[in-house]
Amino acid sequence: MSGQPNGNAVHRHLNDILASPGFARSKKLGAFLSFVVTRVIEGDAGSVTERNIALQVYGRPGDFDPKVDGIVRAEAIRLRHKLREFYESAAESGPRIEIPKGGYVPVFAGFEDTIEAAPLEVTKGNPRGWVRAVAPYAVLGFAVVLLAAAGWRYVVGSARPVKASTLVAQANARRLIGDEFGALALLDQALAIDPNSADVHVARARVFEYLGRIKNARLEIDRAQELSALQGIYSPEVALEVHALDGDRPGAVQRLQEMLKSRPRDLALLIELVRRNVGDTSAGDVIRLARQLPEAAGNPELDRLEALWLGYQGKNKEAIEVILRGERKAAALNATYSLGRMLLLEGGLRMQDLENDAAAIPLMRARDWCLSSGDEMCVAVSYRVDGNHVLLDHHQYAKALREYQQGIAIAHQAENWTEAKYLQDGIDEAVKGLDPQLTATDFFRKQFEVFSEAFR
Predict the structure, then answer these.
(1) Which architecture characterizes domain 162-247 according to CATH?
(2) DSSP letters along 84-102, please?
(3) Of 44, 70, 182, 446, which has the fewest Cβ atoms less than 10 A away?
(4) What integer is the mean pLDDT of 133-144?
């Protein structure tokens, strides 16, 4: 059982975090962390609520409604991301402050008070006292030796360590159905087993790319390239991911088409090709080819991509039918990545068909799902889609602006510049809508104020 956290040690560590470059540039996130840590250390964990954080840290008014304003949930995602970056940059392991998903009360690891054992009372010239002092430890040590001897044969004969390559294969199977988070958990284990496997790093890069964590993806693919060069191995998977992260979609598509020549009935490659080329009319041929494979019937990710492709073709009604079927499959398989994005897609498709009331339901479900699963970029996209919803349907420019602001802060944190550009376009539209008579100078000044507010 661990002891109580040492309050002084926690505060010293908190000060180290706040002085780090990442937190020095994010004063509000620092204030968020300070508030929740201080309340818990003072024995007032019950006051660490979404409402109190909104009022005390973000200056929201007394009528704050978390159903309307998701500032705290969005900032909690950014805070977890910043903490993860802080500890990843640390040269050595040590105490940690973490904010578990699904709440705001921090947990402390490595801050427990050290309880020193009392010294043995050994009376000089009294061997019996010495024997009494050490006897319990001798008996315990002897028991441990016996247990170890008895169990050694069993352990050696039956425990077979899992290979990193096995975990990569399992992760790829999870990715195939749209469960990027399940895949990442397996790849974390694989990395611990074999940190010098190029396959592990390229698989992690692929997951990070689809989760929108572009900064993490680049670090992983750089390491995969380095290891491949050292080992004298050419990996088409590494080359594919390099094309993708460089924004070279034609190069990525060409690479996949070359790989399919030797593996024409590989569902994973076919799905990957659709993912990379979903806006092209030729993607329909690839989808039809994938549908011929028996394992495709239960795959929700293929449903998501087909619905997305149908949406690009303007066939929204057909797309919604496919997406509803895919949502049921994804929920049954716990494919979190796929389900969150399908709900967003459903909402977006219904908005395009002017089904605004019907769009609100999947958009609300998507926000809750993305927040509960900790899917940062899914949350950012949900803010964009929700901003579009209130902007286009209700012309609520101020509310839309708040949605875009919260989303763009997350997108910048992940260095997902594509999503950030979409959100910036929304901000521009909302600013113009608030005051159509703005001069160019006033428009840029207002833009600056909006961004300063988002990244404070």
Answers:
(1) Alpha Horseshoe (1.25)
(2) HHHHHH-SS---EEE--TT
(3) 44
(4) 44
